[in-house]
Design brief:
The complex is a heterodimer of chains A (450) and B (102).
Chain A: H1 2-26, H2 61-70, E1 73-75, H3 85-92, E2 99-102, H4 108-115, E3 122-125, E4 128-131, E5 134-136, H5 141-150, H6 154-164, E6 178-179, H7 183-196, E7 198-200, H8 211-217, E8 223-227, E9 236-237, H9 239-246, E10 252-256, E11 259-263, H10 267-288, H11 293-309, H12 324-328, H13 332-355, H14 367-382, H15 390-409, H16 413-433, H17 441-449
Parallel strand pairs in A: 1-2, 2-3, 6-9, 7-8, 8-10
Antiparallel strand pairs in A: 3-4, 4-5, 10-11
Helix pairs in contact in A: 1-13, 3-6, 5-10, 8-11, 10-11, 14-15, 14-16, 14-17, 15-16
Chain B: H1 2-55, H2 61-75, H3 81-101
Helix pairs in contact in B: 1-2, 1-3, 2-3
The chains are: A alpha/beta (450), B mainly alpha (102).
Chain lengths: 450, 102
Amino acid sequence: MRVRRELLRWSLLAVAAAVLVVFLVAQRQSVEVSYGRSPSSASLPAEGSAGELSDASVPSVEEMTARVAAEPVVRLPGAVARWDEGRVRAAAGPGGTRILVAPPGLDEAERRRVKDVENAEIRIVGTEVSGGVLAATPDDLPGWRAQFATADVTDQVLTLLAALRKQPSPPDRDDLRWREPTTAELAPVTAALRATGRWVAPGATLPRLPEKAVSEAFPGGAWFVVLPTQPYGTPLPGYGPALHRLAPDRPVVVMYGGWIEYHGPGASEFAEVAGASFYAQYGSRLSRYSYPQLNVLAAYLARVTDVRYAGLFDRPLPYRPFDPLRVALPALPWLFAGCVAGFVALSIRTVRGAGRRRPGEVGPGGTPARLAGLSALAVELSLLTDARSDPALVRGIGRLRSARYALDDGLPDKHVRRLLADAEAELDGVARDVRMPGYRPDVYLRGRLS
Amino acid sequence: MTLSVLPWLGGAVVAVAAGFLAALLPRRRARADGRKVAWSAARAAIHDATVSRDAAATPVPEAERLLARAELLAAAPGGGADAAREAAAHARRADELWRAGA
């Protein structure tokens, strides 16, 4: 019983310690918060590491300044930006404007050179439009579509001109036109899609698909149509809707240059969110640099994965393994408190149990009865002793007195018994001296206590 | 963070304190008991020795000296179990000397 209680006490303490350790280990949390632990990791990393710098360069500041002074619009080799010249001329007014157009993918020193061309009212690097201390960027999907699908910067240039001249901004105008792809155009596309799941048009820069990002974003697979940046001013072939009509259950991703569209199941639910968040975050970098289409696509697919895992939409998540720690964590403090309380209670019981002295046995064989019997025997013997046996009697009585004090003080029974045994030996000697066998303690006590 | 850690800290402190007290209190009690027992035995031995001295026919200086030391030890307040055992040993030795001399 006692051993079992001790065992329980120490096992409670062990459990409490184990729970404490588990709690401390569980404190090692990460700052990442994700509804379903999205596996996506792709992003557009720091400058120069994702192939965004092109071979294009720009002349010296003096040369560019001289060229800008000579003609109102200077297009450096490799420049891609286009705009509606009639609208820009109308907005610029009679004085006209001076525009310097540089290619995308310049490094920081080259961009600084472009920035230092003071006489250019508007500077365009890639499709990034700036002037003075201002810069204009699109802020909705049609704006990004015009910018990345056809390198159209008309709206940005008009907005910047209005801002520089302290006029109200003109409303954005979506000039992009679509056309139905012809049967002859569609046939090789569908054939390639059915065979390999992707079709890369001539001029597009997609050597391979980012397989991991694809399988995370579209576990069931998807079709990828990749086209280069489309020429400005001509209607775009609308592959997305055409392919969606052809295979309604298949996700279709169409890429025009840096512009990515999704058509397929659930498009109304998440295509806008994914596209808007992707271009809002990366739009300025995509406009300034010339990223390979592979990297743009991988980053977009990572965003699609994030959106899926964000739990905003009722999409099935992959199996999430049962984590006992996550389930048990709320109960741990209570478990710990219970174990500590149990340990404390059992400790108190142990201390009090050890402190409570077991009273000497009561009854004829008990210590008090023996003390009483021996005291009576000493009184009787005291009538018979002479000078020779007196000391032994006094010593015996002294022992009996010590035993009584010890009994009153609650000293251990063993000690009291030892004192009584000493007294008994002395009295035994006295009884033998006075030749009274009936007063031998064992005989006397047997007769008295039985 | 701080609030959620406090119960754990408090619980750990309480558990350690309980364990410490549960080990310390019985030990102290046992020591006190041991001291009392030793003094009880020592006083009994001194009493025996005084009785033997009073009964002795011839004085034994060595025994006197031993008993005096034992009584001195017993008279000093707050003596430990070791002092009690030493006093008991002296008293017992003196008792033996007187009984042998008697």
